[in-house]
Specification:
With 402 residues, the chain is α+β, with helices and mostly antiparallel strands. The protein has 2 domains: 113 residues, 2-Layer Sandwich (Uridine Diphospho-n-acetylenolpyruvylglucosamine Reductase, domain 3), CATH 3.30.465.10; 211 residues, Vanillyl-alcohol Oxidase, Chain A, domain 3 (3-Layer(aba) Sandwich), CATH 3.40.462.20. Helices cover 28% and strands 23% of the residues. It has a 7-stranded antiparallel beta sheet. The protein has a 5-stranded antiparallel beta sheet with strand order 1-2-6-4-5. A two-stranded antiparallel ribbon has the order 3-7. Strand 9 and strand 10 form a beta hairpin. The longest helix has 17 residues. The two termini are 41 Å apart.
């Protein structure tokens, strides 16, 4: 289930659900270096699940979600029929483009719209420690990241690595990690106008093709061949626990300083902050099940990693990320406190093992993932899978019968 057929003349591709993002990027590059696809940064992620939950990466501000660029699909429904967009109908086609995997049927393959990218793009990663003004830079970034030119994507990775300098202080830092759809000579004046506080210089930047940027963001060593995108072996292996949030108002400086204090532990703690704005502001909340559009400044993924096995270590790590998540409560989205379905978080609640979970019980997590689209997803579910055959820990429930 991994075949990929790229049609550059039509600027489309058919991808089977078992292919990975890396395999897709590689297949596109073999046909064209001026086409890409706005999906995620991890090349080992499977297409099927990624598109089913929305999917975003470095092109999100220019072209929206991966799910926003789906044109058609082949799905096996609960009756065993293979249906395309026309046969399944627009309501089911709407639901599978961001409504979460495993809810409505088995998607065999997807037809996607390729997007145009420049022959040369620019990347940079600029780290700043707390002593170098990281808190002030994170504060400023919150006000401008979603308002920048849509060709410019700057995310922040806040990293607590558990290491100490010679002076005995922790080396905690914020890295400003960016893709710009253009060359350095256009980027530097733009940064000088929009984010001069970062002090970006030409020597901080590297020009490359867009497909090479997917290798860069995946963390492969400089000069790695395109074939690394085909490798299904994870670069970084460890136990981890992750959670997510959306931010609608800038977090104040004193709260940012409090985050550094929350990182004062031995395990590796990470916060990844991905900016929205641009194209995401132009697409309505109801256009696809993924509702986190205009008004969201950025998404946060929290993650803690640990290498030692054992319940004591894992429980301690999970408790720490739970504490961080609790600390962030006043500073993130409210009513609901939203979450991203592709960062599946079972802490938000789970279905019962049988089929007795009610719509209201499932809303505990469903509204966080889908906001006002949750009821519509349940309506589609009730129509296409009335016996609730396709179900998992956080699957879409049936609507109650009158």
């Amino acid at each position: 289930m991994r075949s990929i057929e790229v049609n550059i003349e039509e600027e489309t591709a058919w991808i089977q659900s078992g292919a990975t993002l890396g395999e897709l990027y590689y297949a596109i590059a073999k046909k064209s270096l001026v086409h890409g696809f706005p999906a995620g940064l991890c090349p080992t992620v499977g297409i099927g699940g990624h598109l089913s939950g929305g999917g975003f990466g470095t092109l999100v501000r220019k072209y929206g979600l991966a799910a926003d660029n789906i044109l058609d699909a082949y799905l096996v429904d609960v009756n065993g029929r293979v249906v395309d967009r026309k046969a399944m109908g627009e309501e089911l086609f709407w639901a599978i483009r961001g409504g979460g995997g495993g809810n409505f049927g088995v998607v065999l393959s997807w037809k996607i719209k390729l997007v145009r990218v420049p022959e040369n793009v620019t990347v940079f990663t600029v780290p700043r420690t707390v002593e170098q003004g990281a808190s002030e830079l994170v504060l400023r970034w919150q006000y401008i990241a979603s308002e920048l030119h849509e060709d410019l994507f700057i995310r922040i990775i806040i990293l607590g690595v558990g290491e100490k300098s010679s002076g005995g202080k922790r080396i905690d830092q914020a890295s400003f990690n960016s893709l710009f759809l253009g060359e350095i000579d256009r980027l530097i004046p733009l940064m000088n106008r929009s984010f001069p506080e970062l002090g970006l210089k030409a020597e901080d930047c590297t020009e490359m093709s867009w497909v090479e940027s997917t290798i860069y963001f995946a963390g492969f060593p400089k000069g790695s061949p395109l074939e690394v995108l085909l490798d299904k072996t994870q670069l970084y292996k460890s136990n981890f626990k992750a959670k997510s949030d959306f931010v609608t108002k800038p977090i104040p400086k004193n709260a940012i300083e409090g985050i550094w204090k929350m990182f004062q532990e031995e395990e590796v703690a990470i916060m990844i902050m991905d900016p929205f704005g641009g194209k995401m502001n132009e697409i309505s909340e109801s256009e696809a099940p993924f509702p986190h559009r205009k008004g969201n400044l950025y998404n946060i993924q929290y993650m803690v990693k640990w290498d030692k096995d054992g319940m004591e270590t894992s429980n301690r790590s999970v408790n720490r990320i739970t504490s961080l998540y609790r600390y962030m409560t006043p500073f993130v989205s409210k009513s609901p406190r939203a979450a991203y379905v592709n960062y599946r978080d079972l802490d938000l609640g789970t279905n019962k093992k049988d089929k007795t979970t009610t719509y209201m019980e499932a809303a505990a997590w469903g509204v966080k993932y889908f906001k006002g689209n949750f009821k519509r997803l349940a309506q589609v579910k009730s129509k296409v899978d009335p016996e609730n055959f396709f179900r998992n820990e956080q699957s879409i429930p049936l609507l109650p019968t009158p």
